[in-house]
Protein backbone atom coordinates (compact mmCIF):
# COMPACT_ATOMS: atom_id res chain seq x y z
CA UNK A 1 0.00 0.00 0.00
CA UNK A 2 1.45 3.34 -1.07
CA UNK A 3 1.33 6.00 1.63
CA UNK A 4 2.02 9.71 1.85
CA UNK A 5 4.94 9.96 4.25
CA UNK A 6 6.35 13.09 5.88
CA UNK A 7 9.95 12.70 7.06
CA UNK A 8 11.33 15.02 9.72
CA UNK A 9 15.12 14.72 9.70
CA UNK A 10 15.48 13.54 6.10
CA UNK A 11 18.73 15.33 5.22
CA UNK A 12 21.02 13.86 7.89
CA UNK A 13 23.25 10.79 7.87
CA UNK A 14 20.39 8.61 9.13
CA UNK A 15 17.57 10.28 7.26
CA UNK A 16 18.92 10.17 3.71
CA UNK A 17 19.19 6.36 3.31
CA UNK A 18 15.78 5.90 4.95
CA UNK A 19 14.24 8.48 2.62
CA UNK A 20 15.82 6.77 -0.40
CA UNK A 21 14.41 3.38 0.66
CA UNK A 22 10.88 4.73 1.02
CA UNK A 23 11.12 6.27 -2.45
CA UNK A 24 12.36 2.96 -3.92
CA UNK A 25 9.40 1.20 -2.33
CA UNK A 26 6.96 3.55 -4.02
CA UNK A 27 5.83 5.78 -1.17
CA UNK A 28 5.02 9.45 -1.77
CA UNK A 29 7.70 11.09 0.37
CA UNK A 30 7.82 14.69 1.54
CA UNK A 31 10.69 16.05 3.63
CA UNK A 32 10.15 18.84 6.15
CA UNK A 33 13.20 21.12 5.77
CA UNK A 34 14.28 24.55 6.94
CA UNK A 35 16.20 25.40 3.76
CA UNK A 36 14.68 24.06 0.55
CA UNK A 37 17.66 24.96 -1.67
CA UNK A 38 20.17 23.15 0.55
CA UNK A 39 17.89 20.15 1.02
CA UNK A 40 17.40 19.80 -2.73
CA UNK A 41 21.16 19.29 -3.11
CA UNK A 42 21.04 16.33 -0.72
CA UNK A 43 17.79 14.57 -1.57
CA UNK A 44 16.43 12.81 -4.64
CA UNK A 45 14.29 14.77 -7.07
CA UNK A 46 11.57 12.25 -6.25
CA UNK A 47 11.29 13.71 -2.74
CA UNK A 48 8.88 16.62 -2.34
CA UNK A 49 10.08 19.39 -0.04
CA UNK A 50 8.04 21.52 2.33
CA UNK A 51 9.42 24.37 4.39
CA UNK A 52 9.04 24.01 8.14
CA UNK A 53 10.92 24.02 11.42
CA UNK A 54 10.32 21.92 14.53
CA UNK A 55 10.98 25.05 16.61
CA UNK A 56 8.02 26.74 14.88
CA UNK A 57 4.88 24.82 15.81
CA UNK A 58 2.70 26.76 13.38
CA UNK A 59 4.85 25.63 10.44
CA UNK A 60 4.06 21.98 11.26
CA UNK A 61 0.27 22.01 11.10
CA UNK A 62 -0.19 21.94 7.31
CA UNK A 63 2.51 19.31 6.52
CA UNK A 64 1.19 16.99 9.24
CA UNK A 65 -2.40 17.40 8.08
CA UNK A 66 -1.41 16.45 4.53
CA UNK A 67 0.20 13.07 5.25
CA UNK A 68 -0.73 9.50 6.17
CA UNK A 69 2.39 8.88 8.25
CA UNK A 70 5.29 10.80 9.77
CA UNK A 71 8.81 9.45 10.32
CA UNK A 72 10.65 11.37 13.06
CA UNK A 73 14.47 11.30 13.13
CA UNK A 74 16.20 13.62 15.61
CA UNK A 75 19.91 14.42 16.15
CA UNK A 76 21.97 13.69 19.26
CA UNK A 77 20.75 15.83 22.18
CA UNK A 78 23.44 18.25 23.37
CA UNK A 79 23.45 18.79 27.13
CA UNK A 80 23.02 22.58 27.15
CA UNK A 81 20.61 23.66 29.87
CA UNK A 82 18.00 26.11 28.65
CA UNK A 83 18.52 25.52 24.93
CA UNK A 84 15.77 24.25 22.65
CA UNK A 85 16.18 20.49 22.44
CA UNK A 86 15.13 18.88 19.16
CA UNK A 87 14.43 15.47 20.69
CA UNK A 88 12.44 16.63 23.70
CA UNK A 89 10.98 20.00 22.65
CA UNK A 90 10.77 19.34 18.93
CA UNK A 91 8.82 16.14 19.51
CA UNK A 92 6.48 18.09 21.81
CA UNK A 93 5.85 20.60 19.01
CA UNK A 94 5.20 17.83 16.49
CA UNK A 95 2.78 16.11 18.86
CA UNK A 96 0.85 19.30 19.55
CA UNK A 97 0.63 20.06 15.80
CA UNK A 98 -0.90 16.69 14.87
CA UNK A 99 -4.47 17.05 13.57
CA UNK A 100 -7.16 15.88 15.97
CA UNK A 101 -9.54 15.04 13.13
CA UNK A 102 -7.25 12.65 11.25
CA UNK A 103 -5.35 9.46 12.13
CA UNK A 104 -1.60 9.93 11.55
CA UNK A 105 0.76 6.95 11.80
CA UNK A 106 3.90 7.89 13.75
CA UNK A 107 7.23 6.09 13.27
CA UNK A 108 9.80 7.41 15.73
CA UNK A 109 13.51 6.62 15.83
CA UNK A 110 14.71 6.58 19.44
CA UNK A 111 17.79 4.79 20.82
CA UNK A 112 18.58 1.47 22.39
CA UNK A 113 18.26 1.72 26.17
CA UNK A 114 16.13 4.88 26.10
CA UNK A 115 15.28 5.89 29.66
CA UNK A 116 17.67 3.42 31.27
CA UNK A 117 20.23 5.98 32.46
CA UNK A 118 19.17 9.50 33.56
CA UNK A 119 22.86 10.49 33.75
CA UNK A 120 22.96 10.25 29.94
CA UNK A 121 21.12 13.38 28.75
CA UNK A 122 20.44 12.10 25.23
CA UNK A 123 18.79 8.89 26.48
CA UNK A 124 16.77 10.86 29.01
CA UNK A 125 15.50 13.17 26.25
CA UNK A 126 14.65 10.19 24.06
CA UNK A 127 12.66 8.62 26.90
CA UNK A 128 10.70 11.86 27.30
CA UNK A 129 10.11 12.00 23.53
CA UNK A 130 8.85 8.40 23.52
CA UNK A 131 6.36 9.26 26.26
CA UNK A 132 5.22 12.29 24.27
CA UNK A 133 4.54 10.06 21.25
CA UNK A 134 2.64 7.53 23.37
CA UNK A 135 0.44 10.33 24.74
CA UNK A 136 -0.62 11.73 21.34
CA UNK A 137 -3.55 9.39 20.88
CA UNK A 138 -2.25 8.59 17.39
CA UNK A 139 -1.00 5.10 16.43
CA UNK A 140 2.77 4.73 16.70
CA UNK A 141 5.77 2.45 16.34
CA UNK A 142 9.00 3.34 18.15
CA UNK A 143 12.33 1.97 16.95
CA UNK A 144 15.31 1.79 19.32
CA UNK A 145 18.37 1.30 17.11
CA UNK A 146 21.88 0.67 18.35
CA UNK A 147 24.90 2.25 16.60
CA UNK A 148 24.70 2.48 12.83
CA UNK A 149 27.61 1.10 10.82
CA UNK A 150 27.69 4.35 8.86
CA UNK A 151 28.91 6.19 11.97
CA UNK A 152 32.38 5.00 10.92
CA UNK A 153 32.07 7.21 7.83
CA UNK A 154 30.97 10.19 9.87
CA UNK A 155 31.00 10.65 13.66
CA UNK A 156 33.70 8.05 14.37
CA UNK A 157 36.12 9.19 11.67
CA UNK A 158 38.32 12.29 11.81
CA UNK A 159 40.37 12.79 8.63
CA UNK A 160 42.34 9.54 8.26
CA UNK A 161 41.71 8.29 11.78
CA UNK A 162 39.05 5.91 13.03
CA UNK A 163 38.24 6.99 16.59
CA UNK A 164 37.92 4.41 19.37
CA UNK A 165 37.02 5.91 22.74
CA UNK A 166 37.45 4.35 26.16
CA UNK A 167 38.19 0.72 26.92
CA UNK A 168 35.95 -0.47 24.04
CA UNK A 169 35.04 -3.76 25.74
CA UNK A 170 31.31 -3.49 25.14
CA UNK A 171 30.00 -5.30 22.08
CA UNK A 172 27.64 -3.43 19.76
CA UNK A 173 25.23 -5.20 17.38
CA UNK A 174 26.04 -2.79 14.54
CA UNK A 175 23.11 -2.14 12.19
CA UNK A 176 23.25 -0.87 8.61
CA UNK A 177 21.10 2.06 7.56
CA UNK A 178 20.03 0.04 4.52
CA UNK A 179 18.40 -2.42 6.93
CA UNK A 180 16.92 0.38 9.03
CA UNK A 181 15.31 1.88 5.93
CA UNK A 182 13.90 -1.49 4.90
CA UNK A 183 12.44 -2.07 8.37
CA UNK A 184 10.75 1.33 8.39
CA UNK A 185 9.34 0.72 4.93
CA UNK A 186 8.06 -2.70 6.00
CA UNK A 187 6.57 -1.13 9.12
CA UNK A 188 4.58 1.29 6.97
CA UNK A 189 3.20 -1.64 4.99
CA UNK A 190 2.30 -3.67 8.10
CA UNK A 191 1.54 -0.79 10.43
CA UNK A 192 -1.81 -2.02 11.73
CA UNK A 193 -0.26 -5.27 12.97
CA UNK A 194 2.57 -3.58 14.90
CA UNK A 195 0.95 -0.35 16.10
CA UNK A 196 1.92 0.45 19.69
CA UNK A 197 5.12 -1.60 19.63
CA UNK A 198 8.62 -0.54 20.72
CA UNK A 199 11.17 -2.47 18.66
CA UNK A 200 14.91 -2.73 19.27
CA UNK A 201 16.87 -2.53 16.00
CA UNK A 202 20.17 -4.46 15.92
CA UNK A 203 22.30 -6.20 13.33
CA UNK A 204 23.83 -9.68 13.34
CA UNK A 205 27.42 -8.87 14.22
CA UNK A 206 28.39 -8.07 17.81
CA UNK A 207 31.72 -6.24 17.72
CA UNK A 208 33.45 -3.86 20.09
CA UNK A 209 34.43 -0.43 18.78
CA UNK A 210 38.04 -1.62 18.58
CA UNK A 211 37.15 -4.78 16.63
CA UNK A 212 34.96 -2.84 14.21
CA UNK A 213 37.60 -0.16 13.69
CA UNK A 214 40.28 -2.77 13.01
CA UNK A 215 38.17 -4.38 10.26
CA UNK A 216 37.76 -1.02 8.52
CA UNK A 217 41.41 -0.07 9.03
CA UNK A 218 42.56 -3.34 7.45
CA UNK A 219 40.40 -2.70 4.38
CA UNK A 220 41.19 0.99 3.95
CA UNK A 221 44.60 1.79 5.34
CA UNK A 222 43.13 4.28 7.80
CA UNK A 223 44.65 4.48 11.27
CA UNK A 224 42.91 3.62 14.53
CA UNK A 225 43.22 6.32 17.18
CA UNK A 226 42.44 5.20 20.75
CA UNK A 227 41.35 8.03 23.06
CA UNK A 228 40.47 8.12 26.75
CA UNK A 229 36.93 9.36 27.30
CA UNK A 230 38.18 12.54 28.96
CA UNK A 231 39.96 13.55 25.74
CA UNK A 232 36.89 13.47 23.49
CA UNK A 233 36.81 17.24 23.08
CA UNK A 234 36.51 18.55 19.50
CA UNK A 235 38.35 21.86 18.99
CA UNK A 236 36.07 24.81 19.67
CA UNK A 237 33.25 22.64 21.00
CA UNK A 238 30.81 23.99 23.56
CA UNK A 239 30.77 22.78 27.15
CA UNK A 240 27.41 21.19 26.40
CA UNK A 241 28.81 19.14 23.52
CA UNK A 242 31.79 18.11 25.63
CA UNK A 243 29.45 16.88 28.38
CA UNK A 244 27.30 15.08 25.83
CA UNK A 245 30.17 13.21 24.19
CA UNK A 246 31.55 12.10 27.54
CA UNK A 247 28.12 10.89 28.63
CA UNK A 248 27.72 9.06 25.31
CA UNK A 249 30.97 7.15 25.53
CA UNK A 250 30.77 6.48 29.28
CA UNK A 251 27.40 4.84 28.60
CA UNK A 252 28.64 2.71 25.71
CA UNK A 253 31.83 1.81 27.59
CA UNK A 254 29.93 -0.28 30.14
CA UNK A 255 28.53 -3.81 30.13
CA UNK A 256 27.87 -5.66 26.83
CA UNK A 257 24.78 -4.72 24.88
CA UNK A 258 22.09 -7.42 25.18
CA UNK A 259 20.53 -8.74 22.00
CA UNK A 260 16.89 -7.63 21.95
CA UNK A 261 15.96 -7.52 18.25
CA UNK A 262 14.24 -10.92 17.98
CA UNK A 263 10.78 -9.37 17.71
CA UNK A 264 11.77 -6.87 15.02
CA UNK A 265 13.51 -9.56 12.97
CA UNK A 266 10.47 -11.83 13.24
CA UNK A 267 7.98 -9.18 12.14
CA UNK A 268 9.92 -6.95 9.75
CA UNK A 269 12.64 -9.28 8.48
CA UNK A 270 16.18 -10.23 9.40
CA UNK A 271 19.04 -7.83 8.62
CA UNK A 272 20.61 -8.29 5.19
CA UNK A 273 23.89 -6.40 5.62
CA UNK A 274 26.69 -7.89 7.72
CA UNK A 275 29.54 -5.75 9.04
CA UNK A 276 31.96 -7.39 6.59
CA UNK A 277 29.63 -6.56 3.69
CA UNK A 278 29.43 -2.97 4.92
CA UNK A 279 33.23 -2.77 4.95
CA UNK A 280 33.35 -4.10 1.38
CA UNK A 281 30.86 -1.43 0.30
CA UNK A 282 32.41 1.61 1.99
CA UNK A 283 36.05 0.51 2.03
CA UNK A 284 36.87 1.78 -1.49
CA UNK A 285 35.21 5.13 -0.74
CA UNK A 286 37.08 5.64 2.52
CA UNK A 287 40.29 4.41 0.88
CA UNK A 288 39.97 6.96 -1.94
CA UNK A 289 39.36 9.75 0.58
CA UNK A 290 42.42 8.62 2.52
CA UNK A 291 44.59 8.63 -0.60
CA UNK A 292 43.34 12.03 -1.77
CA UNK A 293 44.09 13.52 1.65
CA UNK A 294 47.47 11.82 1.80
CA UNK A 295 48.53 13.27 -1.56
CA UNK A 296 47.03 16.74 -1.16
Largest sheet: 7 strands, parallel
Mean pLDDT: 90
Specify the oligomeric state.
single chain
The general outline is globular
Roughly what percent helix?
Answer: 25-40%
Number of strands: 12
Distance between the termini: 50 Å
CATH domain class of the domain at 4-148 and 174-202 and 258-272: Alpha Beta
* Portion in strands: 15-25%
List keywords for this structure.
296 residues, 3-stranded mixed β-sheet, 17% strand, single chain, 7-stranded parallel β-sheet, alpha/beta, 11 helices, Rossmann fold
Describe this structure in words.
By secondary structure, this protein is of the alpha/beta class. The protein has a domain at 4-148 and 174-202 and 258-272: Rossmann fold (3-Layer(aba) Sandwich), CATH 3.40.50.720. It contains eleven helices and twelve strands. Strands 3-2-1-4-5-6-10 form a seven-stranded parallel beta sheet, sandwiched between helices. Strands 7-8-12 form a three-stranded mixed beta sheet, with helices on one face. The chain has a two-stranded antiparallel sheet with strand order 9-11. Helix 1 packs across helix 6, helix 4 (86-97) runs parallel beside helix 5 (121-134) and helix 8 (209-220) crosses helix 11. It is globular. The protein starts with a strand and ends with a helix.
Amino acid sequence: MVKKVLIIGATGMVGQPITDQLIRDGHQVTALVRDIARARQKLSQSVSLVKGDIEDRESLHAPLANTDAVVIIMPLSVNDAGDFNAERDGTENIASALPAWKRIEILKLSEIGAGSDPSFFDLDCKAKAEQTIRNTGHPFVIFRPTWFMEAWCDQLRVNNNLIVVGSSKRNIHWVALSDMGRWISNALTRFNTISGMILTAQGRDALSFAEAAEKIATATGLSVLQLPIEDVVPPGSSLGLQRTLRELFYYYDREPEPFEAQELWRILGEPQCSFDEFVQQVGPVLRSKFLSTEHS
